[in-house]
Amino acid sequence: MPIPLVDLKAQYAAIQPEIDAAIQRVIANTSFILGKPVAQFESDFAAFCHARHCVGTDSGTAALHLALLLCDVKPGDEVITTTHTFIATAEVISIIGARPIFVDIDPRTYNLDPNQIERAITPHTRALIPVHLYGQPAEMDPILEIARRHRLRVIEDAAQAHGAEYRGRRAGSMGDVACFSFYPGKNLGAYGDAGALVTNDAELADRARMLRDHGRRAKYEHLIVGYGYRLDALQAAILGAKLPHLDAWNARRRAIAAYYTELFSNSDIVTPYVPPHIAPVYHLYVIRARNREGLRAHLKARGIETGIHYPIPLHLQPVYAALGYKPGDFPHAEQAAREVLSLPIYPELTDAQVEQIAQSVKEFCG
Ligand SMILES: *Cc1c(COP(=O)(O)O)cnc(C)c1O
């Protein structure tokens, strides 16, 4: 049997009655826009993140865009982020008319290296966007300390890290604002596009609520220029039905990751490095391989689907050619882009499947 990178059908099969009932309730009440389903999910998800406020949006990208607006990032400002991430992290900086300033990663964790931040700060710098890549929190204490010292805002891109912990603090509870994606394949996934912004600051949450809904509080009184970025009520109901399972799903992802790492222990395969103070949620399980394309083809021939997150670092993307970066600027990220390979990981993956995948990887790598 082929093994896909993610299997959304297996998850639906496991919880179908709960999902179907949640959808049916929204339809029966015709409460399609905001209202109770959205408010209920926002309150539940804030609690899950150990944060005070959650504002649902129609995507993670929309949440990131709003986060920059909440942090008063303006055209001409600079925002520092990692070059090894999904395009959305930087795209929103450009949408505002600000300039993304990329920095290299720590090659062991693939996350933004805090030691690279200060040399990138200029008088134009407004904010930092650490990304909790692959579900593993960035090194937040030094990042928050640098931000305090330079009076910068911190936006967590937690799109891959629902429930991950850094020194006992959950992703989403550490920065000024945090952004989550509920893209279907994320650890908590909707049945379409959805996202959320999380913060401990009541004023920021209030402004985010207005911004995502045409700048209003009351139906036809518009106080600021806003957007049509509302979280869909059907998606909120689906997410609300899934949320009670998330801690158990994350625990299963951790068990699968630990099993992979154990099976690779007497090989030269580079497995994820996790500092002792960090508890990742393994949105992805990423290994490194010198001959990645060869390994990928070997696995594909055995029915095992893999992914590459991500093949081109953002500073070398065609869209950012005008920023003037060149190959060699961020060697750790560039090497990672050549070598990383994501193996299948999702809560419903069986131990036998993990063994089959690990066996096939070892056959190729020795
Ligand atoms: C998925 C993702 C996003 C974007 O989320 P969407 O919901 O697809 O808009 C942003 N940043 C990272 C790191 C992501 O993985």
What's the helix-strand series?
Answer: HHEHEHEEHEEEEEHEEHHEEHHEH
The geometry reads as globular
CATH topology of the largest domain: Aspartate Aminotransferase, domain 2
CATH C-level of the largest domain: Alpha Beta
Number of strands: 14
> How much β-strand is present in the residues?
5-15%
Class of secondary structure makeup:
alpha/beta
Tell me the CATH superfamily of the largest domain. Type I PLP-dependent aspartate aminotransferase-like (Major domain)
Sheet of most strands: 7 strands, mixed
Distance between the termini: 24 Å
CATH architectural designation of the largest domain = 3-Layer(aba) Sandwich
Structure overview:
The structure is a single chain. It contains eleven helices and 14 strands. With 366 residues, it is of the alpha/beta class. The chain has helices at 8-29, 35-48, 60-70, 88-96, 140-150, 202-212, 233-242, 246-263, 292-301, 331-339, 351-365, and strands at 53-57, 78-82, 99-103, 125-129, 153-157, 165-166, 169-170, 177-181, 195-199, 216-218, 221-222, 278-279, 285-288, 340-343. It folds into two domains: 8-103 and 111-244, Aspartate Aminotransferase, domain 2, CATH 3.40.640; 245-365, Aspartate Aminotransferase, domain 1, CATH 3.90.1150. A seven-stranded mixed β-sheet has the order 1-9-8-5-4-2-3, with helices on both faces. A three-stranded antiparallel β-sheet has the order 7-6-12, with no helix packed on it. The chain is globular. The relative contact order is 0.16. Helix 3 (60-70) crosses helix 4. The model has no long low-confidence stretch (mean pLDDT 97). The two termini are 24 Å apart. Strand 6 (165-166) and strand 7 form a beta hairpin. The structure holds pyridoxal-5'-phosphate. Pyridoxal-5'-phosphate (PLP) binds next to helix 3 and helix 4.
